[in-house]
Structure formats: structure tokens, C-alpha cells
Specification:
By secondary structure, this protein is α/β, with parallel strands linked by helices. It is built from eleven helices and 13 strands. α5 runs antiparallel to α6. The longest helix has 16 residues.
């Protein structure tokens, strides 16, 4: 295996088991609820995600905080001192200041450790979309890819990492300014569910709406049919806002329609879940375009 560290952040929503299996290091982002700051570790040691979503359902609000330069420096410096090179795959700059913090930390540490290779990539991805890109990068490293080869592969393919998702409660998109109060009210009354994706600038964008929950879940898979590459051999990741049965429904449709076997399901973590809310379901795969 090439001797460099892949470093990502917890918005990738990788489970602790998968991060360990991939030999990937994860820096936690933070969220604030009831006046207390929690760090979003992959093993959920500071708050169980089910309890987080239950609090949201009961009317609690959560805010989030990006990783700052000092946190990146603290995570990377021991690795550089140990003679390791580092490739950072960061949360979309269209949704967080986390990537910019990584960029500033890299510039600072390159001067201090000129003999080390140190790169950061703005994945323009979120949740298990970012996680899936990290998965591909780790697999490329396993095959012997150099740090530059893996970095270049990620840069070349990140805009093929498709994100399709829907939410169940429009209140959270309204609070985040993604939709108007009037749209949220009418949508809630009529049971209109938005279908969204992450665009080439890494922003959340509404690309459609349907009536009813089951139609929204099906719309995610319909979109996959339009854009997926070699769908039968794909690895597919699905994340959910404390609605595992709905995620499993989408997984079942993907298996039935495309014959996909390698599917990973995990929570939408609190950092993204604070903005998307309970009932979010997201589908991620490599496609022709976003």
C-alpha cells in the first residue's frame, strides 16, 4: 500500500467500522444543541444519532460549526512528524468553510514540513457522497496508487459522484433558507416532497418535486437510471435521517432495478442532519454527471 494518510471529516458520514476498514482518519465537525457543543465522531460517542433526530422531532434546533485551521493543524502535524504524507478530502466548499480551513492549514504546514507531500481536495460532496468518494480513494490507494495519482483521480471524478436526496419535513430546508416559508407551508399541506441534488459547485439544489413519500423515494432511483454508469457493477451508498426502513426500501429498488449488490447504508450525521431534518433519504453513486 502506498504510504500516505487519507484524512477526511465527519460530514462524510462514514461509520467507525468503515473508516477503520478503509484505514482513513476522520476529523469531527461540531454541532450545538441545547447550549452544548458536541463533536460528530464516526462512532457517535458524544450523541447517538437516533437521539439527535428525536430531539429535532421534539422541536429542538441544532446549529453546526466547521473545522477550523487549528483543528486541521493539530490533526496533521503528528502525521507529518511521523514521516507520513497526507491527502485531505474535505466537505464541499459550497456548504461549509471546512475546505478553506484545510487549505490554509496545508499552506502553513507546507512551509514547516517542505519535505512532506500535503494536498487537500474540495470534494464538492456531502454526506455519504463524500464518503463514497473517500471509499474510492482508499481503494485506489490499496491498489498501489501514489498520493498524486489518488488526488488526481478524485479531482477528475468528483463531479461524477451523484447525490440524489429527498426530505420529509420541509421546516428544516425553510430554516436554512433553501425554500421559502410559503413553499414550505403549501408543500406540507399538499404532501409535496422535494427532490434535490448537490450541483457542480457543491450547493444543494432543488431539481423536482413529487406528491407523497413513496413517489419521492422512487424518484431518487429514477434519476439514478438516467445517469448511472455501469449500474450493475456500481457501489452505492445510501444515507438516512433516522428512517432506516425507507433507506432499505430505496436499496431494494436499486437492487431490483440494476442488480447492484454492494450497497452501504448509514445515518446522515448531525452536521448535515441539522439542516435536512429527520426523514431525509439520500442516494449516491458514480454517474455520467451530477
Amino acid at each position: 500500500m502506498s504510504d500516505f494518510i487519507i484524512l477526511t471529516d465527519s460530514s462524510a458520514d462514514l461509520s467507525a467500522e468503515m473508516a477503520q476498514e478503509l484505514d482513513v482518519q476522520v476529523i469531527p465537525l461540531s454541532f450545538i444543541m441545547k447550549g452544548r457543543t458536541y463533536r460528530n465522531f464516526p462512532d457517535n460517542r458524544e450523541m447517538d444519532p437516533h437521539l439527535f433526530y428525536e430531539a429535532l422531532r421534539q422541536g429542538e434546533e441544532a446549529t453546526t460549526a466547521a473545522i477550523n485551521v487549528a483543528q486541521y493543524t493539530e490533526a496533521m502535524e503528528p502525521l507529518l512528524q511521523a514521516g507520513k504524507d497526507v491527502l485531505i478530502l474535505a466537505f464541499s466548499s459550497g456548504l461549509s468553510a471546512t475546505y478553506n480551513s484545510s487549505r490554509l492549514a496545508v499552506e502553513e504546514l507546507r512551509e514547516k514540513y517542505p519535505e512532506r507531500k500535503l494536498y487537500t481536495v474540495d470534494t464538492l460532496c456531502a454526506s455519504l457522497g463524500q464518503g463514497l468518494l473517500v471509499w474510492y480513494a482508499a481503494k485506489a490507494r490499496e491498489r498501489g496508487g501514489t498520493i498524486e495519482e489518488v488526488r488526481d483521480w478524485v479531482e477528475d471524478r468528483k463531479l461524477n459522484l451523484c447525490h440524489q436526496f429527498t426530505v420529509d419535513d420541509l421546516h428544516f430546508l425553510k430554516r436554512g433558507g433553501r425554500i421559502s416559508a410559503a413553499t414550505a407551508l403549501v408543500g406540507s399541506v399538499l404532501q409535496v416532497k422535494p427532490v434535490l441534488h448537490v450541483d457542480n459547485e457543491g450547493h444543494l439544489v432543488n431539481i423536482g418535486k413529487v406528491r407523497g413519500r413513496q413517489a419521492a423515494l422512487k424518484a431518487l432511483v429514477d434519476r439514478m437510471e438516467e445517469t448511472a454508469i455501469d449500474s450493475g457493477s456500481l457501489t452505492v451508498f445510501i444515507s438516512h435521517g433516522d428512517c432506516l426502513e425507507d433507506a432499505q426500501t430505496v436499496a431494494g429498488m436499486v437492487k431490483k432495478r440494476f442488480g447492484v449488490q454492494n450497497i452501504c447504508i448509514n445515518y446522515v450525521g448531525p452536521v448535515i442532519g441539522a439542516h435536512s431534518g429527520p426523514g431525509t433519504v439520500a442516494l449516491f453513486y458514480i454517474g455520467t454527471n451530477r
